[in-house]
Amino acid sequence: MTNPTKPLVLVPLAPGFEELEAITIIDLLRRAGIEVVSAGLVPGPVRASRATIHIPDTDLDAALSRDYDMVVLPGGLPGADHLAADPRIIALLQRMAGQGRFTAAICAAPKVLANAGILAGKRATAYPGVLEALKLTNTTLVDVPVSRDGQVVTSRGPGTAMDFALTLIELLTDTATRERVEMGLQRPNQ
Question: Is 46 inside a domain boundary?
Answer without folding.
Answer: yes
